[in-house]
């Protein structure tokens, strides 16, 4: 069993015109052999975009790409056309054996957190689906791969929530802050827990907060 805290202030920052990106894992020339992945998660990026900026058409294969829009709105264009992903929504792109797509900000101050998961058995045909914010609030969990689940945990100021036990758990503070606990000093927006073989943990919000909780290795 182990727990690790990754502070947002330690993330790799990349700046481009109209875009600020913070990388959780080794990226490009910033190679770190001790920080290449966490289970099937090989990318965990936090992007802030100005309207109309983002990522023009590019190609992916062998991945499941999961995007949570924190603020603003994201315009996604792929083989099936264009979809608008509003704040609070989750989008899941299964790239299959190859797909081209683009992602551009459709509103000012668009911020989204995106995770790439390696898919050992990708479907032949790519797919794209959006879970609207209202359904995320109601259903809470999105299954991305067998044994890989994202739970959007929303906590009001002072409320306590449970991080479920799993072989691997990644907890990201997308909004707000967590109070000091037996595990750590306070966690702030952009900070993360990485748990390996840990039991369930309770966390308490210091302000209204949104946690993105990835569980890996739970029964499918």
From TrEMBL:
Q: Which residues form a coiled coil?
A: none
* Database matches in InterPro entries: Pirin (IPR012093), Pirin_N_dom (IPR003829), RmlC-like_jellyroll (IPR014710), RmlC_Cupin_sf (IPR011051)
- Superkingdom field: Bacteria
Q: Name one Pfam family in it.
A: Pirin
- Domain (Pirin N-terminal) spans 14-117
Instruction: Write down the Gene3D superfamilies for this protein, in alphabetical order.
Output: Jelly Rolls
Q: Which family does it belong to?
A: Belongs to the pirin family.
* PANTHER family according to UniProt: QUERCETIN 2,3-DIOXYGENASE
Q: What is this protein called?
A: Pirin family protein
* Species assigned in the record: Nocardioides plantarum
Q: What is the lineage of its organism?
A: Bacteria, Bacillati, Actinomycetota, Actinomycetes, Propionibacteriales
